[in-house]
Amino acid sequence: MSILEQAKQHIFEKVVALVGNDSLINDIIVDYPPEAAWGDLSIACFVLAKLNKQSPVELAKQLAGQISADEVIGQVQAVGPYLNFFLKPEYLNQAVAESLDGRAGYSQEPIDERIMIEYSNINTHKEYHIGHLRNICYGDAVAKILAANGYRVDKVSYVNDFGIHAAKTLWQFKKNQRAVGEGYILGHLYTAASQALETDADGKQAVAEIMKQIEARSGEDYKLWQETRRWSIDYFDSIYQRLKIKFDQIYYENEVIDDGRELVSKLLKQGVLQESQGAVIADLEQYGLGVLVLLRSDGTALYPVADLALAAKKFTKTKLSRSIYVVDNRQSLYFQQLFKVLELAGFQTKLVHLPYDFVRLPEGMMSSRSGRVITFEEVYEEAKSKARLEITKRHSDWSESKIDQAAEIITIGVLKFEMIKVGADKIITFDLNEALRFDGFTAVYLQYVVARINSLLKKGHAKLSGQLPLELLTESKERELMLALAKFASVVKEAGRRYEPSILAKYLFDTSRLFNDYYQSTTIIQADAAKQTARLALAAAVARVLTNGLEILGIETLAEM
RNA sequence: GCGCCCGUAGUUCAAUGGAUAGAACACCAGCCUUCUAAGCUGGUUAUCUAGGUUCGAUUCCUAGCGGGCGUACCA
């Protein structure tokens, strides 16, 4: 437990002992006052007072009188119906030491549960756009947060390489072969194909022929499929490398689809699935979930077939306590249906669909088929050239490779942060100019704080080990910073409990703002030796929390910028 | 039709039943002969409507309005 969690527990126990009524325990909630000056922790006395048939103001006053200062609590104040606690300075000082630890924010108590999280489900033969970027950034941040909370996390991805979209792209490719070997180009071909096929009946015929060969796994088109599939996968790998995101396992539709068909016929025999109008369906009307179609009336497979096989594969291979699917909220009904079928099929793993809202453009929805998309490549290039420019302005003496490395870290940080800084239930209206900002609520703001602190540490002379004179940190801004540091561990927990990286992003930003404010109003290197040591320790603790917090969000920091 | 999600400042977002609804961007005015100005300080502006539950509602419930999405052979 972090020192703040211990303090909360301590206060809770004291109040429980005084109130002495077990039925009230759930109503004793140790919270934070809205204003730093009012205290570090607080309890609202409304419910307690009501059940005790007292006025809340009276009860707060009475409790304040009964609780005395100790090794944790410095002062207690009743402010109206609120009971406010100030932590003892020596106690709060421990937050600095706690945060200086290299593992700050990472749980020291492993949880004996294994969670599989599936995200970045993409299609080969199509482009990679900023919608995919939101998915992978959000999914990866959640995975890292859960890991930081002590869970064992398996990160998996599922690639749809076997659908009709591949045939369409190939059809276009055969018409005008160009850019051989480049996965990036396939996305453009898909768009061109979709548009052309709207009016081209012969084309549709040809696409169907290509699809047949792919499914039959033989012929010229199958070979071409194999080759182009590889281009796509290599291209996606290059994106993953830039994002520094790794999966434990990547599944491909073409590898599970046959198992899926087998599973479907088994479930059909068992009566979990039914035949209807020539198709194979799951009739889920009795659960209020409508009907899920698995096989078309022509016998070809739909999406859920592979998903069933994939689930079966996941659950039999490893013993999971939870299986999470990070997929946008348009598929909420689909996942309810899928989960119900899996349950009826006898699988018992706890299934979670983790929905998030989609990315749209100011002018409307993105659409691969119409080509109205912003690709990852476009945003990446624009952001990176802007980063290069900004760095060059500030560091004329840096080498080209040093500039490039820094620009890369800034670019990826900005893009990731942009994708996770808002709640998952919010539509992101992607404005390129907005996304290319390097000030305000952005990754750069946080990275900048770390770089500045790093520079302080280089210039200062303090040794930050052994006994630190933290008792010299008495200014109100120093107290506020220490309290902010102390909250780190519980913020990571909260973000995990709610699957919400934006909570952590916001916390890191708030903490950075506090530090910038402090930095502006205080001298650190110029202070006398003891003060310098104490303040550098505080600054180093802030940098550690920001670095680890960003790392948990998948974002790197820089020593200099 | 039915179901799900969202309506907060000019814009993009925060506040998951608590104290004076917070930030960022944009706009205006300041701050670099002192630790990185990618920074800091100050200023203007908001809970879609109507009911209800509650000591207390941006938050929960009901109805309406507005936007988005889904709803048997797309993924």
Description:
There is one protein chain. With about 550 residues, the protein is of the alpha/beta class. The chain has 19 helices and 16 strands. Strands 5, 6, 7, 8, 12 and 13 form a six-stranded parallel beta sheet that branches. It is globular. The protein starts with a helix and ends in a 9-residue tail after the last helix. The model has no long low-confidence stretch (mean pLDDT about 95).
Mean pLDDT: 93
Structural class: alpha/beta
The percentage of residues in β strands lies in: 5-15%
**Residue ranges: pLDDT <50 for 5 or more in a row?**
none
Instruction: Assign the CATH topology of the largest domain.
Output: Rossmann fold
Percent helix, as a range, is 40-55%
CATH superfamily of the largest domain, please?
A: HUPs
- Put simply, the count of helices is 19
Total domain units: 3
Count of extended strands: 16
Q: What gap, in angstroms, lies between the N and C termini? A: 35 Å
Radius of gyration: 28 Å
What is the level-2 CATH architecture name of the largest domain? Answer: 3-Layer(aba) Sandwich
CATH class value of the largest domain: Alpha Beta
Sheet with the most strands?
Answer: 6 strands, parallel
Globular, elongated, flat, extended or rod-shaped: what is the shape? globular
